[in-house]
Amino acid sequence: MARFIPEPYRIKMVENVKMTTREEREEALKRAHYNMFRLRSEDVYVDFTTDSGTNAMSDQQWSAMMLGDEAYAGGRSYFKLIQAAEDIFQYEYFQPVHQGRAAEKVLFGAFLKPGKFALANLFFDTTRAHVELAGARCLEACNPQAADTQLRAPFKGNMDIERLEAVILEKGPENVGMVVMTITNNSAGGQPVSLQNMRETAKVCRKYNIHLNIDAARYAENAMFVKLREPECKDWSIKRIIREFFTLADTFTMSAKKDAIVNMGGLIGVKDANAPYIDRIKANCISFEGFLTYGGLNGRDLAALAVGLYEGMDEDWLRYRLGTMEYFGSRLDELGVPYQSPPGGHGIFLDAAKFYPQIPYTEYPAQVLAVELYREAGTRTSEIGSYMLGNDPDTGAQMRSMNEFTRLAIPRRVYTQSHYDMVIDSIAQVWKHREPMKRGYRITWEPPILRHFQASLEPITE
Ligand code: F0G
Questions:
Q1: Which end of the chain is more exposed for a tag (fewer CB within 10 A), N or C?
Q2: Does 437 have pLDDT greater than 90?
Q3: Which of 37, 59, 72, 166 is catalytic?
Q4: How far apart are CA 459 and CA 114, in angstroms?
């Protein structure tokens, strides 16, 4: 069994949580229409819905917030953030925005419109939505190894280079508005992308003159995986690996709510200060987010982000972070519980299709598992499968996800080993009692876009 790596921090402030009974949880589920996003957080014991914006900031970040400059224009905190971003990513223009999807909204329209395609190693939910909101369509070219959860391969998040090139030729390079490389690959299970694969992707993009954007939410976890798994980089610093990755792309969109360890924030980076689309970024930012030097954030948020970018790439931190996932995974291995292996950087993705092979993707097996985990011990997780993927924007038909995952996304610096052990014990119970589960859920109401956040569900009983 993997050893639990001790935390490289200690706790200075606590948040009390409420304990609930099974009956209370049953009522809460009904009130929420079996949608995890509609549960109240006070009815949740361990919240593994997401690692996004749920992180605990450090004393350094909180004290930086006190120095936040709330000027509308040209604030000190803005320049601190730009200085940190320039140092780490070595790009020439940065635009803070309020979160990742804001970065997508502000940038994507410059490259995408009706008739165009965006191609990715896999899109996460809001990224897919912003491609479609720009009028374009999503195509994917993910390493097929990601479909086999039992295969322990080092870089299951990679772009499938052959497919990438084949799709570009099929659609015509002039119709592919951008290629998006998601690091780590969230929908594939937080799986990393290798530097080698990033180089090959960039080569294809250059060959066909296609814009390459990094979806950079988990850039630091990806860099640590590269350090541990790609022999060329074993003696490199995390910063050097990050720089090498980013120099291969033209732009990045970042949700800073993950690896940059803040509760709210996002960033756009542009490699070339003379890129023609910078004017469009600026105009969109001012219209939708706010003036260029705050981008929808408070000055104190910019200040916390400037510190968080560095804390998130600290090697001791990242070793602990990935070690936590390995510990979790190795305990599940002992129990024979199927999950996307090896574990990803930000969580454990249980393979719900293997828990409930009798439940079809149209009845959302990963939603079934999410509900069971909440029932069992008050653990909130999220469905990363066909329920989240939604309906085809052209035909309205339910799309089928490559995997049916129930994701346990681990907030940074929030939970302890005993929380993980409690959750693992509850997974063992749900795994043991999985057999009688015959049917899944049906959607009784759904909005047209990003339905999983709001939809109502009910258990199918007949
Ligand atoms: N890209 C990726 C890869 C993401 O995982 C997310 C968010 C976004 C973009 C959008 O960023 O939330 O700041 O607007 N993922 C969260 C999750 C919500 O739970 O994985 P955002």
A1: C
A2: no
A3: 72
A4: 38
- Nearby residues of 284 by Cβ (< 8 Å), 6 or more positions away: 105, 106, 107, 109
CA–chain centroid gap for 150, Å, is: 21
* pLDDT over 80 (residue 435): yes
Question: How far, in Å, is the centroid of ligand 1 from the Cα of 100?
Answer: 6
Residue 129: what pLDDT?
A: 94
Determine, yes or no, domain membership for 150.
Answer: yes
Q: Which of 102, 217, 366, 455 is catalytic?
A: 217
- Active-site residue, 125 included: yes
Using alpha carbons, list the distances in angstroms from residue 258 to 51, 155, 215, 249, 366. Answer: 6, 20, 12, 20, 23
Is the model's pLDDT at 433 over the cut of 80? yes
- Let me know if 130 is a catalytic residue: no
Ligand 1 site-directed mutation target among 254, 255, 348, most atoms within 8 Å of CB:
255
- What lines the ligand 1 site, CB under 6 Å? 50, 52, 99-101, 124, 126-127, 182, 186, 215, 217, 255, 257, 266, 409
Total of domains in the chain? 2
Question: Angle 145-148-354 (CA atoms, 0-180°, nearest 5)?
Answer: 165
Question: Cβ neighbours of residue 432 under 8 Å, at least 6 residues apart?
Answer: none
CA of 408 to the centre of ligand 1 (A): 15
Report the nearest-CA residue for atom 8 of ligand 1.
Answer: 100
The yes-or-no answer on residue 217 being catalytic is: yes
Among the listed residues 124, 327, 364, 405, the single catalytic one is 124
Q: Is the pLDDT score of 253 beyond 90?
A: yes
Q: Is 72 a catalytic residue?
A: yes
Out of 281, 296, 311, a domain closes at 311
- Same-domain check for residues 396 and 301: no
- Residue 74: give the domain boundaries: 59-311
Is 98 designated active site? no
- pLDDT at position 66, please? 98
Quote the pTM value.
0.97
Q: Residue with structure tokens 């229409």?
A: 33
Known catalytic residue at 310: no
Task: State how far the Cα of 64 lies from the Cα of 178, in Å rounded to an integer.
Answer: 37
374 touches 39 (CB < 8 A): yes
* pLDDT tens per residue, range 303-318: 999 999 999 999 999 9
Q: What is the residue whose two structure tokens read 């000027």?
A: 71
Contact 149, 351 (CB under 8 A): yes
Q: Are 105 and 117 in contact (CB under 8 A)?
A: no
Catalytic residue (one of 98, 258, 271, 346) = 258
Same domain, 300 and 325: no
CA of 312 to the centre of ligand 1 (A): 16
